[in-house]
Amino acid sequence: MTEKILVGIDIGGTTVKQAFIDMGGNIITKWEIPTDKSDSGKNIVPDIVKSVQEKLEESQIHKSSVLSIGVGAPGFIDVENGMIFEAVNLGWKNFGLKKQMEELMGVPTFVDNDANLASVGEMWKGAGNGATNLVCVTLGTGVGGGVIAGGEIIHGQNGMAGEIGHIASVVEGGAPCNCGKKGCLETVASATGIARLGLEAVTQSPEGLLKKKLDERESISARDVLDAAKAGDDIGISVVDTFAHHLGLALANLSNTLNPETIVIGGGVSKAGTFLVDKLEAEFKKYAIPKIAKETAIRIATLGNDAGVIGAAWLGKTSLKKMENEVQ
Amino acid sequence: MTEKILVGIDIGGTTVKQAFIDMGGNIITKWEIPTDKSDSGKNIVPDIVKSVQEKLEESQIHKSSVLSIGVGAPGFIDVENGMIFEAVNLGWKNFGLKKQMEELMGVPTFVDNDANLASVGEMWKGAGNGATNLVCVTLGTGVGGGVIAGGEIIHGQNGMAGEIGHIASVVEGGAPCNCGKKGCLETVASATGIARLGLEAVTQSPEGLLKKKLDERESISARDVLDAAKAGDDIGISVVDTFAHHLGLALANLSNTLNPETIVIGGGVSKAGTFLVDKLEAEFKKYAIPKIAKETAIRIATLGNDAGVIGAAWLGKTSLKKMENEVQ
Questions:
Q1: Across residues A176-205, what is the average pLDDT?
Q2: Which of A245, A254, A289 to mutate to test the interface with B (most CBs of B within 10 A)?
Q3: InterPro entries from the entry (chains A, B) (predicted)?
Q4: Which of B87, B103, B114, B154 is CA-nearest to residue B10?
Q5: Under CATH, what is the fold of the domain B5-119+306-327?
Q6: What local confidence, expressed as pLDDT, does residue A61 receive?
């Protein structure tokens, strides 16, 4: 018998990331294709199937070696049936992703939210380091998240669990958020939020490194703010302190309720590394129950863009196993 | 074959509540015995076993009809092994509760935290109404809680999950909490917290119904504050508004992360009923993601003191079933 492999797929608005992954979670080969969003995204799945089949042939792997396919997609998902309720930036609405994939590939397919699968990827092979109680936060353009408890992804009643970015952080006078509320964590802890806070701060006190950046480019990025803070710039530091306060408080309160072993911080902002984690940990420890403050590890994500496909492979592997157990 | 029954036990600092419960979760008979805390609590389990055996005889139920025993206990618990790490008010430390109960009764026994089992009780037969994604909050002397996701109790890494009372609520200048922090939810949302807020408010503005109460009794209870608020007293209303703001915000943020179907509010304070729920819902809706604000139900617990034994019976029933599935 040939060794089985897992297929992991991570569908994004620009590209679809794909990988063949061994049963231990190691990437055998990975590649990506552009996401064809034309015609309400009806070419996306056929494109994926064609590409997977070509890559199997190229790698001289027989289709019968593929144990399962895991797919991460953005938006609201009925994970039970592998249905996408709505993925605005792909054009999908009530789309039977699992069904179409299984029809075209003939391999058991399982679907979950992309942020959840990135969390699971970090649990399996990344910064989670096997921890089965995990909170993952992705600090990118927005703030996303995933919660894993007892090794299981927490979906909640309507698949909306993990929306850490919409925790109410600035209770009075917060900035408007895309969700319709004001003062969400996303408005102060995303790259966009940090850049906005930086611009506000330097407009109020036009001095230091950020003033220089602003004069050069007429804009301020999150990177500018983080770099300035690292270089000891007062305005940069005050913005990072605000960021760390709100994120540290939110994560402490989540940990007081969920008692994770590890909190994994990913996304572009996390590239600021230990500088950020140190600030964050100090705020976290102020608000977490003493025992939890002591025992919860805060770590930077290690898998980068591979987290999604690795998590998708995990989903395929474990869901199939569960299904087989239920049939017995 | 006689119908099987479940034994549910809820060990508290003053009494041990016990019940025989049918497979559908209905109480057949219930009774309680005093908790003998002498000699580091070494008589507690033998007392329970004696009492259960007497009640079986009295009810003419043969011991072989007892399917399983579920036990709720306070403190930190290793649920896997049914070990109590520490239950200060029972005198137990590293106590093998499951082991002793199984040795004395010869019936499979399962142990969990009492607050978790009360939550499960409400899920099975109470206000949870079968919802498998549930957050329960108990507003008593302190604030306790339980989180259920996908029908499973969330324990976290060290069994500390569900410590909702220690969410940081008053971020600046909060009152000291038993846990060593300041401004925990418990300091503003427990009966003790409401009474303290009431006393502070009426000391600052000595007028209205609460001033009258204070003159009569030289103290203010949570009940006084809630009654005054219901009667339209301004100071009472301002305290209830503070309470509702902090609890509503905390529950909204939990719901933004966990997406429960139902939030169940129990404990003495919850007896204020719809008056309280209305205020709480208004604050909850301010801070929850719009879809979650719309779809999450907030309900008052319905089982009262029976929640613990019913939840314990559920634990015994479902844990045994899981064990059998694993053996197969």
A1: 95
A2: A289
A3: ATPase_NBD, ROK, ROK_cs, ROK_glcA
A4: B114
A5: Nucleotidyltransferase; domain 5 (3.30.420)
A6: 94
pLDDT at A121 over 70: yes
Bridge partners (DSSP) of residue A7 are: A20, A69
> Could you give the ipTM of this predicted complex?
0.91
Q: Inspect the interface and report whether the beta carbons of B249 and A171 lie closer than 8 Å.
A: yes
Please name every residue paired with A32 in a beta bridge, in sequence order, or none if there are none: A17
Terminal Cα distance for chain B, rounded: 23
Give the containing element (helix H, strand E) for A138: strand A134-139
Indicate which of B286, B289, B295 best probes the interface with A, i.e. most A CBs within 10 Å of its own CB.
B289
Residue B211 CB burial class (10 angstroms; 0-12, 13-18, ≥19): middle
**Amino acid at the residue B106:** G
Q: Å from A88 to nearest chain B CA?
A: 16
User: For A23-78, how does the pLDDT look when each residue is reduced to its tens digit (9 = 90+)?
Assistant: 999 999 999 999 999 999 999 999 999 999 999 999 999 999 999 999 999 888 99
Instruction: Specify the 3-state DSSP secondary structure of B174.
Output: coil
Nearest residue to A178 (alpha-carbon basis) of A135, A144, A128, A149? A144
Is there a contact between B259 and A328 if contact means CB atoms under 8 Å apart?
no
The residue extents of the domains of chain A are: 5-119+306-327, 129-302
Residue B26 structure tokens: 């209905």
Size of interface A-B (CB pairs under 8 A): 134
3-state secondary structure A285-302: HHHCCHHHHHHCEEEECC
Q: Provide CATH code, domain A129-302.
A: 3.30.420.40
Interface test with A, best of B153, B258, B261 (most A CBs within 10 A): B258
CATH class of B128-301: alpha beta
Q: Tell me how close the Cα of A157 comes to any Cα of chain B, in angstroms.
A: 5
Which among B158, B252, B290 has the least Cβ separation from residue A295?
B158
Which residues of chain B have a CB within 8 Å of the CB of A163?
Answer: 256-257, 259, 289, 292
